[in-house]
Structures are given as C-alpha cells and as structure tokens.
Amino acid sequence: MGSLEEQFPVPQKKLSLEIKGNKTDVVICAYEDHFFVMATQLETMGTILHARKEEGVSVLPTFNVSVIFGKRDEPMLVACARQLIEHIRCFSKSACDDAIMFSFCVYSNSGSSKPLLLSLGLKDHSTETLKGVVSAVSENGLW
C-alpha cells in the first residue's frame, strides 16, 4: 500500500488510498525530534495541528493538542491528532509488540515521546474519514 523511502536525513513513507470515495495521499516522516504526518484529499496542507505528551508527575499520560494554522472550530481534527499521538506513544518500536499489551502501554513510560505535527487537508471531517486516516497512518507508521 505504501512505499518506505529510507533517505538521509529523514525516513519517510508515502501512500495513496481511497477514503469515502476520495483519493487520499499520506506522507509520514520520522524526524529526529518530531513525527510529521500529512494527509490530503485537496493537494494542500489544510489544518496543521501539534500534538505532544504532557510532561508531569502523573502515572497516566496526558496529551496536549493545539491547532497551529487552520480551522480551530473542528473538534474532530483535534480528536484525530489525539488518537494518533496516543497510538505513537503506545505502539512505537521501543514499546509493545502485541496489541494485547495496549493497556500496559498506555499506562507505562514506554513508547516514543516525540511530538506529532499533523497536516489534514480533507474534503470532509466526518468520523468515517478521520477513522480512515488514523487507520492508514497507524498501519504504516515509522514509529
């Protein structure tokens, strides 16, 4: 479905898929200090969000998602970013190898703590579309 391009200095993966009848292009990049994901159906960047794990003394991880540019009144975009950062946090290479361990991962200090920069240029922000994006990115992540 996607192609992995191990290029210096940034590993990246590109894929194209259809979500709700719309061609969707996805690019995933693993920078040294951030993950970058762009999903577009409009051939443009769209709304840009930043998601990161909050540092603190709490045992349970908390995440902060903010809109950098674009639509600030779209809670589904924020939910999409939150799902992706939680997935990265749990399922990175240094974290769990098995989905059965999900509850352990969420409550442990394993996983990547790299922030996520997410660009969403989508024709609609429906639950179905955003689930398709989260699924495609989760299945093809570089974490």
Q: What does this 3D model show about the protein?
A:
The chain has 143 residues and is of the alpha+beta class. The chain has one domain: Ribosomal Protein S5, domain 2. It is 25% helix and 34% strand. It has a 7-stranded mixed β-sheet, covered by helices on one side. Strand 2 and strand 3 form a beta hairpin. The longest helix has 17 residues. It is globular and about 45 Å long. This is Proteasome assembly chaperone 3.
Overview features:
143 residues, alpha+beta, Ribosomal Protein S5, domain 2, seven-stranded mixed β-sheet, 3 helices
Short synopsis of the structure:
With 143 residues, the chain is α+β, with helices and mostly antiparallel strands. Helix content is 25%, strand content 34%. It has a seven-stranded mixed beta sheet, covered by helices on one side.
Q: How many angstroms separate the termini?
A: 17 Å
Q: Which oligomeric form is depicted?
A: single chain
Structural class: alpha+beta
Query: Can you identify the CATH class?
Result: Alpha Beta
Written as H for each helix and E for each strand, in order along the chain, the element string is EEEEEEHHEH
Q: Any low-confidence stretches, pLDDT <50, length ≥5?
A: 93-110
Number of spatially distinct domains: 1
Helix content: 25-40%
Mean pLDDT: 84
InterPro entries: Proteasome_assmbl_chp_3 (IPR018788), Psm_Assembly_Chaperone (IPR053720)
Pfam families: PAC3
Protein name: Proteasome assembly chaperone 3
